[in-house]
Amino acid sequence: MVRIGIVGLGFMGRIHYLGSKNLTNAKVVAICSRDKTKLAGDWSTTRGNFGPEPGFVDLSSIKTYCDYDAMLADPEIDLIDVCNPTHLHPEFAIAALKAGKHVLVEKAIALTAEQADAMLSTAKAAGKLLMVAHVLPFFPEFRFAAEAVRSGYYGLLLAAHFTRVIAKPDWSAEMADSSKTGGPAVDLHIHDTHFIGLLAGVPKSVFSVGTVDGDVVNYLTTSYLYGPDGPAITCSSGALATSGRPFVHGYEIYLEKATIAYDSGGTPLTLFTSDGKATHPEVPGGGDPIAAFTSEIQTAVDAVRTGIEPALLSGQLARDALLLCHKECESVKSGKSITI
Q1: 186, 221, 261, 323: which has the highest count of C-beta atoms within 10 A?
Q2: Using CA atoms, how far apart are residues 201 and 204, in angstroms rounded to an integer?
């Protein structure tokens, strides 16, 4: 049994708690927060943009900590699930690793590549797993696409375009605070750079255009430049939509023998094959976003049991995704192509 301690009881902490309810051979045994109201089970303020309405949680069977060091000293915790704001990830993850705990940390891994490098080196020195909770590959439509590309079943990846657009978050002060999240070009767009890295690896350079609010890039369109033999990949992502416009993400992926399309705004997962047919593959877990988080956390749990880092939660992949976001912001601001 893998015993999990969650630190940070905001929206993502609640989602991870809900996702952990359906784990196999694992359970949440402890939580940590500075908010005594939340430690008492009142999670009514942890509202987000999906999931069930927050309310009261029965924590009678779970240890509660307001002191993080005390939580780390608990020998009955194997895995620390770091769900506090991004700017705190390095401090909390590194402390957990040094305390001999495996770590699952919410995306983004950190605010800077240098912080991410420190986290990776600490994990290596401690002999513990540092896993980053990028949930997108666990959503059924994206899982199908990743498996199709990585398997080579439909031939090589030729090109792709990804989309991820929201209105500026008004449901969380922390989400809207770029000093804590890195702004939309990191907190939101890193889903895309992580998935692109998973499919095609790190490009040689990027060229991006976009819009800037103060010093924060809030929308961009990027070309990922892999060279003459690489795939032609682009992405449009950001928090620029008018308030009330529903969140939309999706893709069109072009392989040698198939095209895969999906748009959460109206196009179901569709596979177009070279025989001219269009089908809608059946994928398990659709319609319940919490299920994707259960799958993500289960993957981390299984890794703790085996000691093998899972590719989908790779700390290095998460670090490279963060670096891409920063290089794209540099390109937007400079108007130039930026070498990775």
Answers
A1: 186
A2: 10
